[in-house]
């Protein structure tokens, strides 16, 4: 055989086989690279979709917060000063800030003036929130005290005494507004949605100098908590 073993008509069969082998390997690598590329594109697309969904919820959440705040402000703008109250936009809280109107020192019974305010405020409050019920997870009646109890108690004793006091006060508020004749038809929703919470002195008001404002810390708030987390979960899972 001309040219010797392993040669045919001037071609080296060994080199041809090596070239065929490397061509097969490169074809395989190219195919794998295309698979990885498609997987990467799919994952990126999924990540972008999830991001867009979360952004959609964030925008809807902010719009809903603004809408609730504006609705409360429109309803109560003319009453806040005479009630000694304000509406906090960030927490969607209506805060009653005049402790001398709310309760006697160390007592849980509502003072007559506060009863009168709640009789006017609460039915209107529920009426405003009715249009937002699908986005409301909870309404909290929050009781806050100063860190002071009396000169004979330690800091820890004062904290727990004030805890019991703040909890008793919010229960008194909830019991009073629940029994208002004007909200009789809303009592099932009230029981399901409104909670009375006492925070003792955990969230004090402070002055510009960073010191506790004892009077401002003694307050009662009605706070709306929206179900943004539930909405995010629904959109992502949907």
Question: What keywords describe this structure?
Answer:
single chain, 238 residues, alpha+beta, 60s Ribosomal Protein L30, Chain: A, two-stranded antiparallel ribbon, 8 helices, 7 strands
Could you characterize the architecture of this molecule?
With 238 residues, this protein is an alpha+beta fold. The protein has a single domain, classed as 60s Ribosomal Protein L30, Chain: A (2-Layer Sandwich). It is built from 8 helices and 7 strands. The strands form 2 sheets. The protein has a 5-stranded mixed sheet with strand order 3-4-7-5-6. The chain has a two-stranded antiparallel ribbon with strand order 1-2. Helix 1 crosses helix 4. The radius of gyration is 34 Å and the shape is elongated.
Distance between the termini: 73 Å
Percent helix among the residues?
Answer: 55-70%
**For this structure, what is the CATH homologous superfamily?**
OmpA-like domain
Task: Please count the helical segments.
Answer: 8
What sort of overall outline do the alpha carbons produce when their principal axes are compared?
A: elongated
Mean pLDDT, rounded to whole units? Answer: 86
The largest β sheet comes out as: 5 strands, mixed
Could you provide a short overview of the structure?
A hairpin with a 4-residue loop joins strand 3 and strand 4. The chain has a single domain, classed as 60s Ribosomal Protein L30, Chain: A. It has 238 residues and is α+β, with helices and mostly antiparallel strands.
Topology:
Blueprint: E1 7-8, E2 11-12, H1 13-76, H2 80-83, E3 85-88, E4 93-96, H3 99-102, H4 112-129, E5 136-144, H5 155-178, H6 187-193, E6 194-198, H7 214-217, E7 219-226, H8 228-237
Parallel strand pairs: 5-6
Antiparallel strand pairs: 1-2, 3-4, 4-7, 5-7
């Amino acid at each position: 055989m001309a040219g010797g073993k392993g040669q045919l008509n001037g071609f080296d069969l060994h080199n041809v086989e090596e070239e065929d082998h490397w061509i097969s390997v490169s074809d395989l690598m190219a195919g794998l690279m295309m698979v990885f590329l498609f997987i990467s594109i799919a994952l990126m697309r999924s990540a972008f979709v999830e991001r867009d969904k979360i952004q959609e919820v964030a925008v809807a959440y902010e719009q809903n917060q603004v809408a609730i705040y504006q609705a409360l402000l429109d309803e109560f703008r003319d009453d806040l000063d005479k009630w000694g109250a304000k509406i906090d936009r960030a927490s969607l809280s209506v805060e009653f800030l005049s402790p001398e109107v709310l309760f006697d020192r160390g007592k849980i019974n509502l003072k007559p003036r506060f009863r009168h305010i709640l009789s006017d405020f609460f039915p209107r409050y529920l009426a405003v929130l009715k249009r937002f019920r699908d986005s409301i997870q909870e309404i909290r009646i929050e009781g806050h005290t100063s860190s002071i109890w009396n000169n004979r108690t330690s800091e820890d004793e004062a904290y727990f005494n004030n805890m019991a006091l703040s909890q008793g006060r919010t229960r008194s508020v909830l019991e009073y507004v629940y029994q208002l004749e004007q909200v009789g038809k809303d009592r099932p929703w009230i029981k399901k949605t409104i909670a009375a919470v006492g925070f003792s002195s955990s969230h004090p008001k402070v002055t510009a100098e960073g010191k506790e404002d004892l009077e401002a810390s003694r307050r009662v708030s009605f706070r709306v908590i929206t179900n943004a987390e539930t909405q995010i979960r629904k959109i992502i899972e949907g």
